[in-house]
Amino acid sequence: MVVPDLKLDSHALLTRPPLCPKTPFDLHVLSIPPAFILSQDQTLHFEVFALIALYLAEYLSTSAWCFNLLDAGYLWYNGFQTIIFSWFGRLSSAALSRPSLGHLSNIANLTFSVNSFSNFLAQQRFSATVFLDVLQETIKVVSNSAVLPPSLVLDPFLHGWLLEDIGRGDRTTNSLLAPDTTLGTAKWIAKAPGIVAGLPVAARVFQLLNEKVSFVTVVAEGRRCESGQVVAEIQGSLDALLMGERVALNLAMHLSGIATLTSKYVEQIADLSANLVDTRKTTPGLRLLEKYATALGGAINHRMGLDDAVMIKDNHIAAAGGIEKAITRIRSQIPYPLTIEVETESLEQVKEALQHKVDIIMLDNMPLDMMREAVQLIHQQDSRIKIEASGNVTLETIRAVAQTGIDYISSSAPITQSKWLDLSMRILP
Could you report the per-residue pLDDT of 333-375, keeping only the tens digit for each? Predict the structure, then answer.
């Protein structure tokens, strides 16, 4: 076995800590030598390295792949050295050409030097360039906060939507087919390019109608599809496929449209430090899924509901009689972990919010010059405070807003202005 000559100064993976909530599964629960000594702030996601192997398998070759747990590499994560195990693939066939991974979003401050490590990769029959592309794509997928609600939460919604559509029974399908008697196969085909979202939800729709239905994704969730490309293949009872078709497609088309437009906004600021966050302007009954789609597109979820955090908006300020009174009353009643964000429309309101040491200051509908001045003022007085910009953000203006130095840009546009991604289902003869 070839061990790469790794040195921290030349082979360090530098990346900012993930801004999204961590998943419950992390290296703290593993009992794999060597021992991992990690603080809570240095928790690593083991899924990253499993997914590296999966992406290599998906893009680089065929059955020639076998995955082995090879030597330890060095990861420089959040300023600390940690030994990690990584999965790499051994390929016995000829050297591979660089695959087409499609658009790769930039990851802020990502560097990976490959001096002697490239020799190691070459001996494993794939190039350092390929590895870096796959690593970047993997981190992109894992680092977003897109998490579907559990079936306990999701199923009642799906039941309701199926009942809305099926009503007292599918007159057409029930007249043609006896329940669960005829098997069939269908394909989902994209009729336009975009980011695919909602396939696990669609699969659950069919399985609620018949648990034996097999839903196989051809384009992975959160990945780009092209017009005419097969997105998924479904096998099972034909009556279940026909009755679930519309609900499943509607959800997937809607969520894919949101993910697609979100990704366009994120692309505009991919090389900047600001992050796009969504809002509570969602379709009633669909908030969890719509916010899941924005996260798949690369955004960060803002609060899911009024119980997540305190956001003192203009109407709250008016109702309380001012920013000071609103903050004082709220702070005396909320639980400790909740953050307080204040919406401001002027420099005077920014100064007042600073006096009361809030956690986040929103700059709402400010001209760019005023926004830059507000950012400078906040940074000078309390660098701990996060800054959010909001108000009439478009694809044309988002980059200029991000360049003012703010931390977050909130926009409802990826949800409220998205267009459904056109998908269709075809039953195979």
Answer: 999 888 999 999 999 999 999 999 999 999 999 999 999 999 9
Is 66 strand, coil or helix?
strand
Does residue 246 have an active-site annotation?
Answer: yes
Q: Which of 280, 287, 313, 331 is catalytic?
A: 313
Annotated catalytic residue, options 245, 278, 364, 407: 364
Catalytic residue among 281, 325, 329, 426: 281
Confirm whether 245 is a catalytic residue. Answer: no
User: Do the beta carbons of residue 312 and residue 343 sit within 8 Å?
Assistant: yes
Catalytic pick among 239, 290, 343, 352: 343
| Cα–Cα distance measured from residue 128 to residue 41, given in angstroms and rounded to the nearest whole number | 30
Q: Which letter does DSSP use for residue 27 in this model?
A: G
Question: How many Å apart are CA 155 and CA 201, to the nearest integer?
Answer: 9
Q: Classify domain 266-416 at the CATH topology level.
A: TIM Barrel (3.20.20)
**CATH of span 151-259+418-427:** 3.90.1170.20
Domain boundaries, the chain: 27-143, 151-259+418-427, 266-416
pTM of the model: 0.70
Question: Quick check: is 264 catalytic?
Answer: no
